[in-house]
Prior knowledge:
Structural class: mainly alpha
Strand content: 5-15%
Shape: globular
Bound molecules: S-adenosylmethionine
Amino acid sequence: xxxxxxxxxxxxxxxxxxxxxxxxxxxxxxxxxxxxxxxxxxxxxxxxxxxxxxxxxxxxxxxxxxxxxxxxxxxxxxxxxxxxxxxxxxxxxxxxxxxxxxxxxxxxxxxxxxxxxxxxxxxxxxxxxxxxxxxxxxxxxxxxxxxxxxxxxxxxxxxxxxxxxxxxxxxxxxxxxxxxxxxxxxxxxxxxxxxxxxxxxxxxxxxxxxxxxxxxxxxxxxxxxxxxxxxxxxxxxxxxxxxxxxxxxxxxxxxxxxxxxxxxxxxxxxxxxxxxxxxxxxxxxxxxxxxxxxxxxxxxxxxxxxxxxxxxxxxxxxxxxxxxxxxxxxxxxxxxxxxxxxxxxxxxxxxxxxxxxxxxxxxxxxxxxxxxxxxxxxxxxxxxxxxxxxxxxxxxxxxxxxxxxxxxxxxxxxxxxxxxxxxxxxxxxxxxxxxxxxxxxxxxxxxxxxxxxxxxxxxxxxxxxxxxxxxxxxxxxx
Length: 478
Ligand SMILES: C[S@@+](CC[C@H](N)C(=O)[O-])C[C@H]1O[C@@H](n2cnc3c(N)ncnc32)[C@H](O)[C@@H]1O
């Protein structure tokens, strides 16, 4: 675990190059201390940034000058050989270029200008592309498995695309491997910030220590404005507009500011001393958080759960497929309800009631019952077809947590062997089938696989809970 002490050299280097958490007090030994400090938050991202004093909403908490942002442009401006090499491969995507640049810079070792930053990057990641076959299957739900396969395929294709460039550039052979590429692309995926001049974004030393909090719900999109009750008073409408301004603000808590030529981070809310200061990286479902960042949120207002939907339901309305989902709390999305109401209407009558369905109104009691029955039946079918129940997943997570708590590697592996079921499959996949092998196996590798497996089980459990909540709500309504 790295804390402020072990990050001392990074914070000093960052201060020397203009990063500061203070508007008016330049500090020499650390870029932090006036507004923020590095701290450890075991349940919300591990290493992160905490408030060292009361922070007001909207206050500037960190500023990083453009010159310290690691981008394809900043690296190639400094290194003519790199610049020439990239020019020979104009068809590479901006993300491929930045990923390559990161490996190229790391290959320089301590002589790299960025070394004080690079040496503190995480050693491993849990994004979907790093999931092995076992962890992928543990997701259980087809579209999640498919997203994992797609992510892995994309990483491999991107890597193949830079093979020539890697060989020409003479970067260390261990940095040319797919394993190294996966690490570098996970670094880019989970740590870059948006900049207007490069689609791949930038790596911002210290600024990339902010952990994530989700922006709240769908409150600033057309669907909710549409569903706003027509009998609301003027005051209600003003309140809604206020909320919308707040949620828009929540999406802009950090950004590159051209006039300051710096990345600036603002407190998205007021924080008490010691509280973790969080950043919203954007609006993501749990599957997307897993794909790009390697974690998920137990409570995610932006999560979406999809179930198979028959073709005639898509055909009975004009809602796009991706808008037909169930919220984490079990409520069907506005579009899903509307589409089901139209589908449950006789085709000859759909035109006549379309305006009501699209505005979110119920069409009739009978129609509503058909909709609720469809939801209940289909959620049940999905749940029954999944290989494990919520209770089994809960038990599995308890056992995984017990194993993770074990400090002595031998104990970890032996305990793993005492659990049956999916644990046996997990051990087999990791090449451990008997006690002797358990003792010799690398516990670091096992722990990493265990972390990813746990994420997969957590994801499928939240998926199932949303469906159960959906069924519960429907039964109460019908
Ligand atoms: C930009 S980094 C944040 C700093 C990071 N914790 C570190 O030690 O360098 C993003 C990564 O932090 C972790 N993270 C951020 N927010 C999190 C959260 N709310 N819960 C769990 N992990 C989180 C994830 O591993 C994510 O990929």
